[in-house]
Amino acid sequence: MEVTQAKLKAIRERELSPVENVERALKRIKKLNPKINAFIEVDEGALAQAEAVEQKLKRGRRVGKLAGLAIGVKSNINVKGLRATCASRTLENYVAPYDAEVVRRILAEDGVVIGMSNMDEFACGSSGETSAFGITDNPAAPGHIPGGSSSGAAAAIAADLCDLCLGTDTGGSIRNPASHCGVVGLKPTYGLVPRQGLIDLGMSLDQIGPIAPDVYGAALLLEVIARRNPNECVMLDAPDTGYTDKLKDIDLRELRVGVSPEFSKLTEPKVMKVIDSAVEKLRQLGAEVVEVELPHIEKAMPAYYLIVSVEFFSATRKFDGRKYGKRIEDVCGDEVLRRILRGRYISRKEYRGKYYQRALQVRTIIRQELAAALEKVDVIVGPTVPKLPHKLGAKLTPMEMYAYDYLTIPANLAGICGGVVKAGEVNGIPVGLQVQGKVLGEPAVLQVMRALEENL
Amino acid sequence: MAEERQREIERSAEEIVESFVKAAEALPSERETYYSQEASNVTRPDGEPSRSEERLDFRKRFIKIMPGSDEDGNLRVEVAKWK
Question: Does domain A3-247 have CATH number 2.30.30.100?
Fold first, then answer.
């Protein structure tokens, strides 16, 4: 039985109390966080929340799906009474006055929020090195970057500081750190999970999703947070899905798995070797592996950085220091300033549709290409990140840093789902397999991830 | 130093724009995709208003984080600086 399922069973059968579980998490954070720096803030009220769940269990009352699990929340999601800093000096004293919709759903299912995880400043980064609250180490490969931007969330799961985490993914920010830290991450289909209460990076691309130690944990957290919110404009009217139920009796013999030759052109051979072994395992498990064409996949990255810069520039205009916080341009780090200036530059030059409008056309091409490929197969599998994580403190140019995102960005541009599960290691450093699925194709994605988790 | 940083950042900002122009030059024209799914929920339902204690709690919490308030607890903002 997987870690998450076993822990939930122990809590429900009163072998482990929610208070003991949360106390254990808090002790591990106290001991390990000074080195890993996965959490920016710990919730002092977590034990009281755990006590309330424990009282329910003692009285034999119904408890929710997340009963007593310790949950970390990325610092760009509002949790009432905790600081939603976006790991930036701009919002360092911003204490959220309300709960985001996803947090409300977690609390309603008796999950216990234990703190706010570290991240790249305003989710602008793929390394976990741009936080104003310090860099995050990679517990699975100490001394290397954990990936980003949900750096603290992936590191927290890898170091067993909590049971589940919420991350966000705009161009790979859940999948990239999940791959580098050897944990499970899932970017849901755009519009499946409410964004209300999330501080935007790129509003047409951002999705909140789970990071977990196992596929069951990711499926469970997704099950809790995925549902239409009638107060949001851009939401799919998707039916409630029991994602954990879909993990029973998996049979890959009916499944068609796509692979693209473009992936190996963009990826380091030693990473590709691990991925090829995982694909071979899927074949051995009965899946039919077929080649799909994605000829323009590498064009997604520059188009994405144009789109996200314009949307980020627009989203940050409210951080003028008048209602709360400090004026963003006065205190932000280099990458955030780079994106703001780029967004402003493009917005000013956007008089003939030369840049932003053109990038939106490229987005259409990528979307059509992925949709055509996913007509032929159930999922597309390949590497998550083209290279291994660099050592903390190594100097990379912005373009070298953006190259980490080549393979994760297309799913955001197309609005499809994508998950990551550990496929193996290169010299002790984890390598994650990315499984991309159709719009609302999360069940198939989770099934492939689970099959690999069980058999690798 | 600040000017040098600004110049370096502007240079790298232009670099990605140029790389995009180069990457996109051979691609066909298409319609634009603003959102990957169509917006389907443009009108919000009429719901119950939030309870007065919730509104008071929100107001109290909001006042705590705002940079300035007048004697009645209203948000005090600075008039924008013209540049």
Answer: no
Query: Among A303, A320, A415, whose Cβ lies nearest the Cβ of B24?
Result: A303
- Write the CB contacts of A47 (distance below 8 Å, at least 6 apart in sequence): A19, A22, A23, A26
In 3D, which of A151, A94, A155 has the Cα closest to residue A123? A151
d(CA A207, CA A195): 7
User: Nearest residue on chain A to B4, judged by CA atoms?
Assistant: A334
- Assess whether pLDDT exceeds 80 at residue B82: no
Rounded distance, CA B37 to CA B33, Å?
A: 9
**Contact (Cβ atoms closer than 8 angstroms) between residue A218 and residue A185:** yes
Name the phi and psi angles at A224, rounded to 5: -75, -40
| Token reading at A142 | 């100490």
A198 neighbors A77 (Cβ within 8 angstroms): yes
Tell me how far apart the alpha carbons of residues A61 and A449 are, in angstroms, rounded to a whole number. Answer: 34
> How many CB atoms are closer than 10 A to CB A375?
9
| pTM score | 0.95
Mean per-residue pLDDT of chain A:
95
- Going A184 to A187 to A189 to A192, the CA torsion angle's sign is positive
Residue type, A35: K
- For residue A104, which amino acid is it? R
User: Mutate which of A92, A98, A307, A416 to disrupt the B interface (most B C-beta within 10 Å)?
Assistant: A98
**A355 interfacial to chain B (CB closer than 8 Å):** yes
- Among residues A13, A364, A324, the alpha carbon closest in space to that of A204 is found at A364
A147, A181 in Cβ contact below 8 A? yes
Contact residues, A window 411-440, toward B, CB-based 8 Å cutoff = 413-416, 439
Query: What's the mean pLDDT in A40-53?
Result: 96
Q: Are A395 and A351 in contact (CB under 8 A)?
A: no
**Is residue A332 within 8 Å of residue A340, measured between CB atoms?**
yes
Query: Over 70: is that where the pLDDT of A257 sits?
Result: yes
Q: Which pLDDT value is given to residue A46? A: 97
Residue in A95, A306, A361 closest to B29 by CB: A361
Angle at Cα A76 formed by Cα A339 and Cα A81, nearest 5°? 145
Q: Could you give the ipTM of this predicted complex?
A: 0.85
| Of A56-60, A164-168, A318-322, A447-451, the least confident | A318-322
Measured between beta carbons, the chain A residues lying within 8 angstroms of B32 are 357, 360-361, 363-364
CB contact under 8 A, B31 and A361: yes
How far is B54 from A48, CA to CA, in rounded Å? Answer: 21
Residue B80 pLDDT: 57
Locate CATH 3.90.1300.10 in chain A: 3-247
* Helix (H), strand (E) at residue A290: strand A288-291
Residues of B with CB under 8 A from a CB of A: 5-6, 9-10, 12-17, 19-21, 23-24, 27-37, 39-42, 44-45, 47, 58, 61-62, 64-67, 75, 77-78, 80
